[in-house]
Design a protein that fits this description.
about 375 residues, alpha/beta, 7-stranded mixed sheet, 11 helices
Length: about 375
């Protein structure tokens, strides 16, 4: 599912991002090579969960529009619960009889899920999905190389704001696939195994070959506690999926973010670890507005019908977990908040912004004022010890 994808006062933006930057800096220093994919299971290393409050967004829909949007949303979910089993069970029989191989079955199941999601979004237009696919200066679609028969294997990361995210991305992927002649690799998502309590989700996820990871049940905003014994199997399946023609999708926040307009939840660097171990670049996607249709806490109480999907064209090998977290926060976090790209998104994705930030930090550490302050602190500490 290789996908291509808005509202706080501009004067608060810099301060918010500085706060996020400082928070993620402190955490990722101890998190550059950790395995947790969507969170950290060690309580001593995991940051306190962000304080979650009930959504206070002012409704932008009239009562009548809200009513029909909610009915449409419920009809969409009901429709997916009907059409997915009807279309996936025959494929399961073909697999069990040996007519389809496991890889063929997984790719067909993912394609079927994308088709069903796209079809129902068109038949039940309860939301407006805007997909952004920018182009390079030479006129080709960004990241498109017609001389390359197969796209490079990659790790994809995205923010997570609603239970509807997955279906939005599936529909967006199909729409982009039908308008772009470039070959693409289907994406296997790393997901929380507890989601299999829903029989339809279980059928779809397993038949698509998605990769589960064990985690203690929690609510939105609570710390993730993973079963580390499941990581070895997860890494093995990730390596196998990449070799079989799939990409890997990871949600670095690790859980639903009820208030993306206020910024990301704590971002973990597990995606960087997977990318480093597999020697694959990381590409980024972003969502905006999906939580205003189906909120993690308030449920199906629509306040807006507009949904934006963004896929960024530049893949990158990050230098560290801290580098990845900063870039994800500045690029995907900004889009999740405001529904538009930050002006320097290309610099963050090609590494120049991170390099400049690192250079600035080193220069600040070497400044006479900071050196003097450090010496004063050392002297004070020695005096205190004596």
């Amino acid at each position: 599912m290789r996908s291509r994808l808005f509202f706080a006062p501009q004067e608060t933006q810099n301060q918010e991002y500085q706060n996020n930057h400082n928070h993620n800096d402190n955490r990722s220093n101890n998190n550059n090579n950790n395995i947790p994919i969507n969170g950290d299971s060690a309580k001593s290393n995991a940051p306190a969960a962000a304080t979650i409050t009930k959504a206070t967004a002012t409704a932008t829909l009239s009562p009548l529009t809200t009513f029909f949007t909610k009915i449409g949303l419920m009809a969409f979910i009901t429709g997916m619960c009907i059409v997915l089993p009807l279309t996936l069970f025959p494929q399961r029989l073909l697999l069990s009889t040996g007519i389809l191989t496991k890889i063929q079955s997984e790719k067909l199941a993912l394609s079927t899920g994308e088709f069903c999601a796209d079809l129902l979004f068109r038949l039940i237009p309860f939301c407006n999905i805007e997909i952004t696919s920018t182009r390079r200066e030479d006129g080709k679609k960004e990241n498109e190389d017609h001389t390359q028969e197969e796209p490079e294997p990659a790790i994809w990361v995205c923010n997570h704001t609603s239970m509807l995210d997955f279906f939005v991305l599936m529909a967006a992927e199909r729409r982009m696939d039908t308008t772009n002649s470039r070959k693409r690799r289907p994406i296997k998502i790393i997901y929380w195994k507890q989601l299999e309590v829903n029989p339809v989700s279980k059928l779809l996820f397993r038949q698509c070959g998605f990769i589960p990871v064990q985690m203690t049940a929690n609510a939105a905003g609570e710390n993730n506690e993973y079963d580390r014994s499941s990581f070895r199997k997860m890494l093995q399946e990730t390596k196998r999926a990449l070799s079989e023609g799939f990409d890997i999708g990871i949600l670095p926040e690790g859980q639903l973010n009820p208030n993306p307009e206020e910024g990301l939840l704590p971002v973990f660097s597990g995606a960087y670890t997977v990318a480093k171990l597999s020697r694959r670049p990381i590409y980024m996607m972003a969502l905006h507005g999906v939580n205003k249709l189906w909120h993690p806490i308030d449920g199906m109480e629509p306040t807006d019908r507009r949904v934006k999907v963004r896929s960024y064209p530049i893949g990158r090998f990050f230098d560290s977990g801290n580098d990845f977290v900063d870039s994800f926060t500045n690029v995907v976090g900004h889009f999740g908040q405001y529904g538009e790209d930050t002006e320097d998104w290309e610099s963050w994705l090609d590494g120049t912004a991170a390099a400049a930030s690192s250079k600035g930090d080193k220069m600040a550490q070497k400044s006479p004022k900071n050196i003097k302050q450090s010496n004063d602190d050392d002297a004070a500490q020695q005096n205190g010890e004596t």
